[in-house]
Structures are given as structure tokens and as C-alpha cells.
Amino acid sequence: MYRFLLTPRWLTVSVLALLAVPFCVFMGSWQLSRFHVRVDQHRTAEHDQSRAATEAPVPLRTVLPNPAAQIPDDGSGRLVDATGSYDTGHQFLIPGRALDGHDGFYVLTPLRIGGGAALPVVRGWLSGDASAAARAGSVPAAPTGSVTVTGAVQYPETADTSGVDSRGGLPTGQLGMISAASLVNVLPYPVYSGGWITATHPVAPLKAVPAAAAPNSGLDIKAFQNLGYTGQWFVFAGFVVFMWFRLVRREGEARADAALGLMPDEDDDQGERDSGDGAAQADPDARVPEGDREQAAPASAS
Q1: C-alpha to C-alpha distance for 210 and 26, rounded to whole angstroms
Q2: CB 157 within 8 A of CB 76
Q3: What is the spatial distance between Cα 191 and Cα 183, in angstroms, rounded to a whole number?
Q4: What is the C-alpha to C-alpha distance for residues 183 and 131, in angstroms, rounded to an integer?
Q5: How far apart (Å, rounded) are the C-alpha atoms in residues 154 and 213?
Q6: Helices 8-54 + 221-259 axis angle, to 10
Q7: pTM reported for the whole predicted model
Q8: Dmax of the chain from CA atoms?
Q9: Contact by Cβ (8 Å): 106, 97
Q10: Average pLDDT by stretches of 10, the chain with 302 residues
Q11: Interacting residues of 296 by C-beta distance below 8 A, sequence separation 6+
């Protein structure tokens, strides 16, 4: 009954199915492994942040030895001490930043390190509208003279960072993103390109901005996309197996019916259609509704 599986056409179909199933399983397993990697990265990032928050601050040069240095893998959230002087003439407000469920903005002031490059320092967060606060002059001024700031090291923000406004067109004195790329065009001196810090002990009414996890280290939408793709590939594998069995069963049943003479021949179907057409031509009234025949009869009589 199933000898047709040895025909070239069915051998090709079977080989393709045998290749498709392990491929789908492999892709699903790979997507699942990517999800596990992101989970492990999330746990590691949480552990590193908890450890960094309890460790004593280290000098800035320990994490960022020079303005061009990049944050090491375990440097996100690390507490550092940075000594320099605030450039109060180039203070910026970062609008659209929420804290504890309230809308507000960050206050960023460059800290000149040794009179050279500047380290971006978020001195704190304020509730309300940034433009209104700037007009009212309610933003606290930065301390003058030489200061030592303790803060948590943060990676530069990108367009994917939560709260970032990358559309541009903000009022003067406001920035949508905290990064060297956005600061280099508005500051007359070099900027630390590796990151910025958020002060841990801001002056009231400023509130401390919590340190954020490193990019791509959390259970974000990408992680759950990997999990969704895992399910899709496994479903595809099951669908291939299901369709192969269904096609084989339908082919086998069709061949069995044909062997028993249960399937009508195409010539018989054509003959039935031709005989039906001939009968309709022999009796033209058979195609005319009864009401139409009654109306047609007086016309023929006249």
C-alpha cells in the first residue's frame, strides 16, 4: 500500500522533511540557548551591581584611566571618586526622565578633571518640567571650586536607552541623551567618551539617580523574542512531521480507493456532463422558469 514512498517524487519529499525537522530543532535550540545567555547576563549584572553598590569608592582612574578609556565589563555601577571643578556655565537638563513613577528631568553638569577633559556628572533628579524649571530658575546651582564627587559609573546612553529623546529640537540648555557624541558639539573641551557618573549624594532638593544596568544585560524585549522564536521553530518542526504523515495517508487512501474502483473516472464525469448538456438542448423549456414560459406562450400565439 505504501510502496509509492519509494518513487522518486516521494523520496524527494521524505528527504526534504528529514532535513527540515533537524534544522528546525537546531534553530529552536539555538534561540533557547540565546535566551539562557541573556538570563545569565541579567543575573551577573544584578550581582555585579549589588557588589559594586557595597564596595568602597575607588579613584576614577581605576575604572577610566583616561578620557578615551572604555568602561570594563565589571565597571558598570562601580562607585568612584572624581575630583575637579564644575563648569557651571555649561549645565544641561535632560528632560523626560522618570523616577519612582514621577516625571522629571536630570541635572547634568560637566566636571573638569584637572582643568582638562570633562566628566559628565548627573548631579541628581528633579520633578516637573525641565523648561518650566529653567525659566523659573529653580534648578540648584553646582558647587564652585574644587570638589570631590562620589558617583556610580554608567555606560553612555544610546537611542535604545529608556527615556532618551533622540528626535532633537530640544530647547537650548537641554539634551536628550547622555553621551560624548551629544556633548562634544556643545562643550568647548574634550569629554570622557567611556561613560558618565551619577552622584550618590546629591544636594537637596536633587534626588539621587539609581545606577542602571549595563546595556544588553537585562531581560529586555530581545530576550523574550528569543524565547518566542524558540517556540516558533519547534512548532515548525512538528508541522513538517504532521504534514508529511497527512500527505502520505491521503496518498495511500487515494491509491487504495483507486485499486477498489471507488474513485470515479474522469471520462465518466465528462460523459455525465455531456449527457446533461444534451438533455438541456433537447428540451429548451427545461432551462426556462415556469413563469417565463407562461409569458412567452401568448407572444408565440400572436
Answers
A1: 40
A2: no
A3: 7
A4: 19
A5: 8
A6: 160
A7: 0.61
A8: 121
A9: yes
A10: 81 91 94 85 68 79 90 84 92 92 94 88 94 91 92 87 76 90 89 91 90 66 83 94 90 81 58 52 50 48 41
A11: 288
The confidence score (pLDDT) of residue 277 equals 54
Q: What is the DSSP string of the chain?
A: --GGGGSHHHHHHHHHHHHHHHHHHHHHHHHHHHHHHHHHHHHHHHHHHHHHHHSPPEEHHHH-SSTT----TT-TT-EEEEEEEE-GGG-EEEEEEEETTEEEEEEEEEEESTTSSEEEEEEEEEES-HHHHHHHT-SPPPPPSEEEEEEEEEPPP-TTSTT---S--PPTTB-S--SHHHHTTT-SS-B-SS-EEEESSPPTT-BPPPPPPPTT-S--HHHHHHHHHHHHHHHHHHHHHHHHHHHHHHHHHHHHHHHTT-SPPHHHHHHHHHHHHHHHHH-GGGGS-HHHHHHHHHHHH-
How far apart (Å, rounded) are the C-alpha atoms in residues 29 and 19? 16
Residue 105: all three cell numbers together: 528631568
Phi-psi region of 19 (alpha: psi -120 to 50; beta: other; left: phi over 0): alpha
How far apart are the C-alpha atoms of 116 and 120, rounded to whole Å?
13
In this predicted structure, what is the pLDDT of residue 97? 92
84: CB partners within 8 A, 6+ apart: 111, 112, 113, 114, 118, 119, 146, 147, 149
CA dihedral over 62, 63, 68, 73, signed as positive or negative: positive
